[in-house]
Amino acid sequence: MAAATDAESETTAETLSASVVGASGFTGGELLRLLVAHPNFEVAQATSREYENKTVGSVHPNLRGADLRFSDPGDLESVDALFAATPHGVSMQHIESFREAADTVVDLSADFRLDSEAEYDEWYDGHVCPEYLDEAVYALPELFREELAGADLVAAGGCNATATLLGLYPLFDAGVLDGDERIVVDVKVGSSEGGAGASKAGSHAERSGVVRPYAPTGHRHEAEIEAILGTGVSFTAHAVDMVRGASATSHVFPDSPVSKGDLWRAYRGAYEDEPFVRLVAGGGGVYRYPEPKAVAGTNNAEVGFELDPGNERVVVFSAIDNLMKGSAGQAVHAANVALGFEETAGLEFQGLHPVGAP
Amino acid sequence: MAAATDAESETTAETLSASVVGASGFTGGELLRLLVAHPNFEVAQATSREYENKTVGSVHPNLRGADLRFSDPGDLESVDALFAATPHGVSMQHIESFREAADTVVDLSADFRLDSEAEYDEWYDGHVCPEYLDEAVYALPELFREELAGADLVAAGGCNATATLLGLYPLFDAGVLDGDERIVVDVKVGSSEGGAGASKAGSHAERSGVVRPYAPTGHRHEAEIEAILGTGVSFTAHAVDMVRGASATSHVFPDSPVSKGDLWRAYRGAYEDEPFVRLVAGGGGVYRYPEPKAVAGTNNAEVGFELDPGNERVVVFSAIDNLMKGSAGQAVHAANVALGFEETAGLEFQGLHPVGAP
Amino acid sequence: MAAATDAESETTAETLSASVVGASGFTGGELLRLLVAHPNFEVAQATSREYENKTVGSVHPNLRGADLRFSDPGDLESVDALFAATPHGVSMQHIESFREAADTVVDLSADFRLDSEAEYDEWYDGHVCPEYLDEAVYALPELFREELAGADLVAAGGCNATATLLGLYPLFDAGVLDGDERIVVDVKVGSSEGGAGASKAGSHAERSGVVRPYAPTGHRHEAEIEAILGTGVSFTAHAVDMVRGASATSHVFPDSPVSKGDLWRAYRGAYEDEPFVRLVAGGGGVYRYPEPKAVAGTNNAEVGFELDPGNERVVVFSAIDNLMKGSAGQAVHAANVALGFEETAGLEFQGLHPVGAP
Amino acid sequence: MAAATDAESETTAETLSASVVGASGFTGGELLRLLVAHPNFEVAQATSREYENKTVGSVHPNLRGADLRFSDPGDLESVDALFAATPHGVSMQHIESFREAADTVVDLSADFRLDSEAEYDEWYDGHVCPEYLDEAVYALPELFREELAGADLVAAGGCNATATLLGLYPLFDAGVLDGDERIVVDVKVGSSEGGAGASKAGSHAERSGVVRPYAPTGHRHEAEIEAILGTGVSFTAHAVDMVRGASATSHVFPDSPVSKGDLWRAYRGAYEDEPFVRLVAGGGGVYRYPEPKAVAGTNNAEVGFELDPGNERVVVFSAIDNLMKGSAGQAVHAANVALGFEETAGLEFQGLHPVGAP
Q1: pLDDT at C3
Q2: Based on CB atoms within 10 Å of each CB, which residue in B199, B260, C80, C316 is the most buried?
């Protein structure tokens, strides 16, 4: 992984035009929030069929100060960069028009995260433009910084996959794991992962206070994890009572004994120059391990671990804001890399303390 | 396991006197709530050094209607049954006086859950009356109904251990697991598990909305689980945003392939006659798997599972109210068995829907 | 107001059949919960068009143990008592068939709460059977115990109206207020008040953590309050982050100075014999004034007050569970009175401590 | 009120040194968060007796990236501006040393909010340096912009007072109210208002899900409100389930009839040039009135109203983040004005959507 500081030396400072397609949803709104305040982007269009001509602030109250109205997704202007926050399966149907409208396309759906039609068909249903799968670059700069530089098509990762990958990747990179081991990933996520729609299960009365197994097995984010790590994981996701946040606890059993020193070396080696990854493992105080609320609203990821000698187990904790590092923030970070901007541009917010259940 | 219905045929209907020692804490208050409404118990004393002479309703607002004041724990009256909700390490110091005061003692601390001094010393610090360890019966009737009948000293299990044991025991009992397999147990618990005291980490501002790893490794409830299952588990506990509830997700990897039918047979065999265990696995609607909020306030446990063929994994979910099935409710259930009462006496409340974050 | 103890002396102990129409909603489910455990009722039917033939436990997880399936609301059996939990405007369309099916009908909608067509038309749209308005008795036994005895048609009050009335009625009854004073009622309610449906505003992500003015002025419950108190109130309702609960803070300015003693006399005079009203005003500890979570799941109401000499103001606090004392519990209480049962039958649950955001 | 834009024309762009005294508490941490990212400030010291030499990130996890350690409050360096986040009654004891250390002192306690010793003694206990009371300027630029320019001693307002004043001031300024009317202010606040300490009442288990009257009458913030508006208000505060946020609902009864147009004129006149006040009154969508969660983490205030013709009442809603506009953000805003910086410097964050219970 190239150090962030290298990339920074070549940053440019121009201002480019950007559009957000599907801007009334949660990730679309988050993209708007980031782009409106981004020093190198000017927002040209925010599309929404449902809310056409309404102000973006009428849907996203934090954007009440923005002088911007939703426009028809059928009338895309030419821009430098287009961010697509359209649902899974919809992005692929419009990818041609997206690319016609913009030189750089960043898609936040699952449509372009996998590398081949075969992989896609194993986890999803029939891809309509598989020819783009190989071209699209996965948007995590911590893993694909070099490939992202100058990329035309970028696929932001799934939030649960992102949390998992950031926790496990260093162990593979450092050889602590080689892919033959059992890996159990137990994820806890907030309600914003379900999107902005209305449902009985997602109503406040039914969804409050839950520890609800919502994807006991077969979660599609496994596909990305396996594709990138080269090995399967035993993945289970639970809905818990927060709005933003994804927390992955990965239980791994290395074949050979490892020490805390080995683990620190692996994680420091991977992340010490990364602007958005913090290692949090032990220490005093209230916040001793990664916690989603410590990164809420930010593009930061917290990663930490504990060693369980009695069970020859390493427990890895990773926490992100699912709408930020797990989606819109990751997308903007990747766009910054792709377009040669400062990596942290538009992503400087460091979060709040105290904060309840963001 | 003897069926509940057998036990019921011999129930008695007398009224016995009962005291609660340590009645101002959360489990003490829960015991009071259950005993005050119990058809076979009359509450003689509720002790609290801190709140002596105050009404129990001044601490537990749900008991405002009860005509009962806290008394000095140093002045124990003779009663038929004594429930001790004293902290870990304190119960053992007073066990002689408890037994002098009552023929039947049910202790809710960790002091008498293990069978031998050696086991105790491995997980805790020096026991002052190890001679009682062997005599004490673990309070889960689903596992120890026969031993509980007529028992003089009963030790209510730990809440996380209870949730885990109820999920895993049937797989051992049915031979799906034999103890050589890796078992990962990932637990999520509410804030009442921390007790009624004040702490910075437990303040509303810091504790709200968390997914906080509070026992990454080495949780003491592992001791009970290992003692009863005969094998170690890889256990990690997280604090999440609810007050009541413990949810255990156990990831197990049987050596031989199992079918859904095998799993149903194992769980039905274990629990079909149990009055307090519900099997919840799949189906439609909002509540498809065990959830703590579906059992909040009740002595019910929900147990369910899913099969992950791709990873040769069984995921077991179990959910309880940590103060009820995980402590005070389990204690009263065990006392009902020990004293020959109807098993469900005083434990009939079936919970609420909808309910937020109880 | 006749004392509860008088009424109790004439209670009967027979078992009657009862049906719940509209049983899949939140108040319908709450009625089922109460009736299934009620010593004098046997549930004959629970109707739901949407969930016909499904178990009631598939919608209400706390009723998983009940052997009962939803039936077609078009096929009503003859029963002794029928509880209608149908939406506003729907009950009135079926009132004839309800009364044909049962001698005693308790309606939980707003359709029969007001006394005349004129009043109804002022706050709602066109009544289809105004001839029943005068006959129907408002379901609060604290105010209408004598009228409820033997009543054939009972109208359970609105939850916000109930909380307000229980707080203010004693001041009118004792002559502290005479109806010429300004009365400001500021209400805070939980999300279950919105019912079991799905909506964007009611999704967990949008509804969590709110203090949302949802009825700044013109709330229809004002109609009931004015009709019963004989004077208008300035009413505003806010949605806050709980599922169950309604809390009314009434700010009143008596024309003549009042003392704390006057207030205690007024409230004790009204409620000292009431089985479901607790006076909570000051004292020590955490719970010094009425709080919805102290009564969650119960039919209890807490009422309290504080005197503000500097502003010649009395602040009255009242707290209920909106689904219980504010709807289904009130309905069952009224049915107990109407049918001559023990007033507290089926309503003995005293709530939980601690409890989160029920 | 001078328009913000006027003030902006004279802004300077230098960098000044600043210290935070009492930096381990919630408002102290919020000040640090703002100052660390402020373009015109460089943080010299963050004091804390309890955490001396520890990193600020060990207490405030959002500041883990800051290279800053707590220092001894007894060793104050000379700086340009000192922000005191010390408790009420403590600031006054150290005011001499604060002023010795810095030319500009901004105090966040209640010690310097009132204008005279007589006022102070009416609501608090004995002031030790009353000579500064008259000099100190109340920190709300919307009301005191001219007085703040060049001020040496600034007193940040109380959060509840701030919310109330922002809602009511325009009605006095425009002559809709003249001070003889009854004004009821019903406030709902989050748990961060209680500060960073530990208490039983503030524990997660007891504090979750509450609607708890915590200051039924006699709240000390009334003093500020009365001093500034020139008239008393009937004030009651409730704790509700959020961490950040204060929402004031003011019920007022103008002597003469007012129209919606009158109200819009009053509020637009007061706030149309204000950078941190948004008028939100009606309209469509989910967020139709001011809500604390729509401004969480920001220095924005939302103000709105509704007219209740039937009761001749105006209901005014105002919502802020108590730690921001209600404390630290207000302090930085005032410092920006006092020191001639851009008013919005360091306060640009616009908040999140969706967001749970921040």
Answers
A1: 39
A2: C316
- Centre a 10 Å sphere on the Cβ of residue D177 and count the other Cβ atoms it contains: 24
CB atoms near residue C103 (< 10 Å): 14
Q: What is the pLDDT of residue D3?
A: 39
- Residues D102, D191: one domain? no
Do both A25 and A138 map to the same domain?
yes
Chain D contacts to B (CB-CB under 8 A):
26, 190-192, 194, 196-200, 202-205, 207-209, 243, 356-357
Cα C234 from chain centroid?
Answer: 20
Q: Which residue of C190, C196, C205 is in closest CB contact with A191?
A: C205
Token readout for B249 is 């997700």
**Are A21 and A84 a contacting pair, CB within 8 Å?**
yes
DSSP readout, D114-127? SSSHHHHHHHSS--
- A7: pLDDT strictly greater than 90: no
- How many C-beta atoms lie closer than 10 Å to residue C150's C-beta? 12
Q: Quick one: which H or E segment has residue B184?
A: strand B183-189
Tell me the pLDDT band of A311, cut-offs 50, 70 and 90. confident
Q: Tens digit of pLDDT for each residue in C286-308?
A: 999 999 999 999 999 999 999 99
If asked whether residues A118 and A253 sit together in one domain, one would say: no
Judge if C210 and C294 occupy the same domain: yes
Q: Under the phi-then-psi rule, with left for phi > 0, alpha for psi from -120 to 50, and beta for the rest, what region is C233?
A: beta
Q: Is the ipTM of this complex over 0.90?
A: yes
pTM for this structure?
A: 0.96
What pLDDT, in 10s, does the model give residues D280-334?
Answer: 987 889 999 999 999 999 999 999 999 998 889 999 999 999 999 999 999 999 9
* CATH value at residue B165: 3.30.360.10
pLDDT per position as a tens digit, D30-76: 999 999 999 999 999 999 999 999 999 999 999 999 999 999 999 99
- Identified catalytic residue from D31, D34, D159, D301: D159
| Binding-site residues on chain B for chain C (CB distance < 8 A) | 26, 29-30, 33, 37, 58-65, 190-192, 196, 242-244, 278, 280, 283-287, 291, 294, 296-298, 348-358
Is residue D272 a part of any domain in this protein?
Answer: yes
Q: How many domains does chain C have?
A: 2
Claim to verify: residue A173 and residue A143 sit in the same structural domain: no
Per-residue pLDDT tens digits for D106-147: 999 999 999 999 999 999 989 999 999 999 999 999 999 999
Is A128 inside a domain boundary?
yes
Question: Which pLDDT score is estimated for A90?
Answer: 96
- Contact (CB, 8 A) for C305 and C267: yes
User: Packing angle between helix B141-148 and helix B159-173, nearest 10 degrees?
Assistant: 90
Six token digits for residue A72:
């028809």
- Mean pLDDT over B24-36 rounds to 98
D171 and D77 in a single domain? The answer is no
Are B205 and B282 members of one domain?
yes
Strands D183-189 and D137-138: unpaired
The residue written with tokens 């949008």 in the block is C206
Q: Which residue shows structure tokens 């204008």?
A: D115
Q: Looking at the domain assignment, is residue D351 inside a domain?
A: no
Q: How high does pLDDT run on average in chain A?
A: 95
Q: What three-state secondary structure class fits A30?
A: helix
Q: Which residues form the domain of B172?
A: 160-320
| DSSP label of C193 | G
CA torsion B200-B204-B209-B215 (nearest 10°) is: 40
What average pLDDT does the segment B248-275 reach?
97
Residue A141 lies inside a defined structural domain of this protein: yes
C147: closest CA of chain B, how far (Å): 27
Contact yes or no for A8/A149 (Cβ under 8 A) = no
Residue A71 phi, psi (nearest 5): -125, 170
Q: What's the whole-number mean pLDDT along residues C113-131?
A: 94
Same domain, B316 and B328: no
Q: What CATH number did the domain enclosing D137 receive?
A: 3.40.50.720
